[in-house]
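Human:
Class, as today's exercise, you are to examine the entry below, and be ready to discuss the fold:
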Amino acid sequence: MVNVVEQLIAQAMDQPNDRIMVDGVKSAVANHFRRLDPHATVTLTEFFNHTHVPDMVVQWPTQPRTPRRFIYLRTTANEHELQDDLERLPATESPVLLTLGRFPAQRASVESSLRRAIDPKLLLDTPALDALQPQVERPNLPQLVSRSVLEGGRGKLDGPETERFVATVARGAEAARTGDTEPTREAIDALTGQMTVDVSDRMAAFLAALWQGGGASLASFPGPQRLLGQLDETALTYLLESEAIPDTRFWNRVVRMLSLPTLLRTAVSDSENLQHLMRQAIQSWTSRVCMIMPESAPSDAGPWRWGIRAGRLILQAPGFQVMAAQSRRQLPTAEEHDLPLLNEIRARAARFNIPLTSLSMVVTDRHVGYGGPGDDISRDVQLDGISSALGQAEGVIEADAKVASGVTLQCAFGTRTASARGARTQVRLDTLFGTTVRMLLPLSDDEAEQIADLLGAQGPPPDQPWTQPTFDGV
């Protein structure tokens, strides 16, 4: 294996100018950390090889439960000097001591010191840093394990030890999906010995999710029993950013271990596993409000995909995006759009079999409302008369649409938002997104087909016979 980081550090150390040398070393290390975990931010200090002040600080803004780590670079691999430094470094800042060379063959005293050291101190040499695999185009388990070492590794790791650790945990993750006990237990043991408690627990919860998602009983999981059934946002991030798992039954089991708020706290954007998860989750999870926003990307921006943006669930489509929230306050300021005509809204309702129970319209500065006792009014012939009387120039401000569960969605066309009526009313995500898009946008046949493939067909309205109202006796 070519040790790229080690070579870059060696080249920088050969520079005759001290400032160029320091900048080159720091850049090589910091850039590797950034590739290792794109969610991390790496801040360089003005110091180098300082006893107390770190050379750089690694933080995870999207993972508030992950503490920052102070990184200390050392130009020596002398075991006595390392031992002295280890005793001086404050454990409160999760220090990582990186020697800019290779560990000597004999280092028993250093290992003894590390065993006595308070967590979470980590000692690495440059081959170990090279053995931590950076982010690649397609997620993989070794990269995920490597990232976790940056978050919470402890103890001592050289190149061969790092390779063994990464391989053991990655092999255990693959085994967990098939319910294979021994490799999974070996991975748990490796995590316990080489990780801080928090990160070890999260990785174990990730393995437990793979174990349960694969169909094995949690009672037989060879890990800490206190973790069973728990999957926080960090462990979920591990799962969603691991290798793609196109197994419907797996994600159907995993959905039961999660909630939408937990998903929205993750640092995931639009991974392949998020797509697999959402295909199952939209049939179980609920929300209250939905908004359609224009997308600045070209109309051929790509496939319809789920994503997480600024703590909001988003369905990205070519030319627009649909986002959900629990309240209107959680959504961005809406843009104002031209109001569609009454005939357009009636045509959309008929096309997708969406019953409308009331309409609010405007002509110039005059408002007109039309509604009934809760039955479908979209086919009433009286609406033809109203439209004719208004010169077919009436813009529809709002419409109440009744969905399959019997819940009413208030569709506002000017702001392209839809919200459930009732302070605590929730709507299943497939219904909320589907009804919002079908009512608020003039969909092409291709877009309608994409929506049906992604969300399913519009559910049938509640059983309620339609009757044409009359004005007899009025």
